[in-house]
Amino acid sequence: MKETLVTISKRTGFAISTVSRVLNGQAEKYRISRKTVELILAEARRCDYTPSLLAKGLRMKRTNTLGLLIPQVSNPYFADIASAIIREARSHGYTVMVVDTMENEENEQEGIRTMLSRRVDGIVAVPCGRTPDHLEKVNRSVPVMLVDRSFERTSLPYVCTDNYRGGVEATRILLQRGHRRIACIQGVPHSMPNRRRVQGYLDALRQAGLQEEAIITGDAFSLENGYRQTKLAVAGPDRPTAIFALSNTILLGAVKAIRESGLRIPEDISVVSFDDNPYLDFLVPAITRIGQPVEEIGKTAVRLLLESIREEVRCRTQLQLPPERIVRDSVANPRTAK
């Protein structure tokens, strides 16, 4: 039999309201005697009573639960973002309900409906849609905080990396070593991080007088995309001397394709990646990359969201945090393609 306030009330002989006040920590407020408190708590421990958090949430108008929408949990970068958010939420006494949208807007909307039915106090989202309309509507009833991705024109708050600056820095690393034919393998074309990284790449080439040399291919933040686009690039008659991979997953696919093609990094082709991860230092050679402040993004997003929940005022903060230039061994001066 499931233990409830009613069953505990029947066994102890105290009113349901008295049992409820004791178990909710309100005994002192209602001047309930110490003896009564001890009897009720002892019975609750004996029968292993677990309160209904949903019922409590309905009474208190809070469930101490956050929703988290992630586009691809299998992607190491998004897994790191999720871990940072969950750790920070837990440190404030919140649990997190995670939904993997699989880069599908319908899955995202279904996930939001599920979260709202569970009465989450707020939602952290890495959005996968093209417009903010749906999330802005949700934000009117439940606070929403965007991370990693944002929209061009929106009132929604967000915390992300300065992706444009990262795109410029990555391209300049290659330009400074003498590369002129640099292939940029992009991810989801319409996503804001991708668009800003590509724009940084293009502007760095333009500033170097090489805008006509731009090579942009690809359509997903995936291993398969990196592998396929690199295979095509290195098989052509005018092989690029360097590749700028716009995510660590794209990078891994590119590395496999380069090795299968009998080429060496960086002797035959240089590589720079966006995103940081410890495993990139264990590849041979270690990969030069643009790191994102994942931990800071997660912590800042949760803190801003919880502040919005507590104060019952919608947050309008929009932050872009600086990326980190991490130079390793995957870039060298270009050689003439054989």
From TrEMBL:
<dbReference type="InterPro" id="IPR001761">
    <property type="entry name" value="Peripla_BP/Lac1_sug-bd_dom"/>
</dbReference>
<protein>
    <submittedName>
        <fullName>LacI family transcriptional regulator</fullName>
    </submittedName>
</protein>
<dbReference type="Pfam" id="PF00532">
    <property type="entry name" value="Peripla_BP_1"/>
</dbReference>
<keyword id="KW-0804">Transcription</keyword>
<keyword id="KW-0805">Transcription regulation</keyword>
<dbReference type="InterPro" id="IPR010982">
    <property type="entry name" value="Lambda_DNA-bd_dom_sf"/>
</dbReference>
<feature type="domain" description="HTH lacI-type">
    <location>
        <begin position="4"/>
        <end position="60"/>
    </location>
</feature>
<dbReference type="InterPro" id="IPR000843">
    <property type="entry name" value="HTH_LacI"/>
</dbReference>
<dbReference type="InterPro" id="IPR028082">
    <property type="entry name" value="Peripla_BP_I"/>
</dbReference>
<keyword id="KW-0238">DNA-binding</keyword>
